[in-house]
Amino acid sequence: MATEDPVSRARVFRLRMSGLDRETQSTFHPVRDRYGRTVQLDPEAARAHRNQTALALYAAHLVPHADQLLDSARSTLRTLPEARHTSAWRDQLDALTTSHTQITDALKHPATPGTAAEREQHAALWPHLAFWAEHGCLAADLADTPGLHQQPGTTLTAEERQMWTEMAQAAQLRRELDLIESWYAADGRLITLAHLVEDDTSTVIALAGDPDAPGWEVIGQFDNEFAAGLVLPNPVPSGVLRADAPSWFNRPEAAPEQPLKDLLRDVIEARSAGDVSESLLSATQVGYAEGPMVLLAQLLDTAAEFSHALGTVQGRQIGARLSTLGRQFAFLVREVHEAAEDLGATVAVLPPHRTPKPPRIRSRPALDTTPPAPPARAASPVHHR
């Protein structure tokens, strides 16, 4: 695409903002101690530089093109069939428009450079800039796919669809239906590509519906995946797990955390039960500085939430498994915490007979020592002809 294309500009802006975010975060890393606490840092200066640079990026890449981008996205959205996601997309485009207006108004009336008023103005614009970096891709995707609503025919008759569906269902029972990828079409249908193995031959088929639930059917049969992509409905942007989750560009600062490797090292180097108890209590601590075992329990619960949110039969089944594992692991965390408290109450130390082994150090010859003579080589045998 041409560099003046609004879609390209929006995607370049996102990439540049991602690089700026990594650059800003990297300024915090060299001045963090082993527990994640920041020392000798001026975060306001780093954020002020980030805000100013982000505004300059927006002015260069999106100010002349955002209106056209939003108009194209709305034009595509009006052609889409009504589905659960279309109203949310309208709200997002409206929010992008509001943020664009706020940014352009500030650029038309900038504060005096180098003043506190300028820093305050840029700080107020940062949420709008971050919102565009995070969600401007929706406008770009809609504007870049004017045929998103189109659903070309797959040339299969009703009888052929039924035949391929029965063959695919039989292959699924034989575990010979290999899923390739899936996406959602503009009308909300779940489309899945799969390899159908039949008589030692494989062909590409497209399914509409959840492959693990009743009611799905084959809507196309193709020689390869490329041919399928030319005919099947285009994918729409996928969703998010939590609509109110913090933006990637506005993540809260991580709480102090002790890595498991450090806790393991502390246990190996410990001499008293109290030291080991403290390591275990750190691993199971809840609250602000949550321990790694507590975080792992949260990871299982969140993964279960994600699996349920997929809305498929397999997703619900795997989500149930992960939920069970999460409850079991949460029980394990409580048991470890109680064992750590009991261990600390023993006020015991390691017995003195557990002494370190002396290091294996090979003695080196003195500098004036003559090296030993090499062994004499045996005379070569004489061969007679």
In short:
With 385 residues, the chain is an alpha+beta fold. It has helices at 6-26, 43-61, 66-79, 86-108, 116-144, 158-173, 225-231, 260-269, 273-283, 292-309, 313-345, and strands at residues 177-184, 190-198, 201-208, 217-222. Strands 1-2-3-4 form a four-stranded antiparallel β-sheet.
Describe the structure.
The protein is of the alpha+beta class and 385 residues long. Helix content is 52%, strand content 8%. The protein contains 11 helices and 4 strands; from the N terminus they run ααααααββββααααα. A hairpin with an 8-residue loop joins strand 3 (201-208) and strand 4. Helix 4 packs antiparallel against helix 5 (116-144) and helix 9 (273-283) runs antiparallel to helix 11 (313-345). The longest helix has 33 residues, at 313-345. The protein starts with 5 loop residues before the first helix and ends in a 40-residue tail after the last helix.
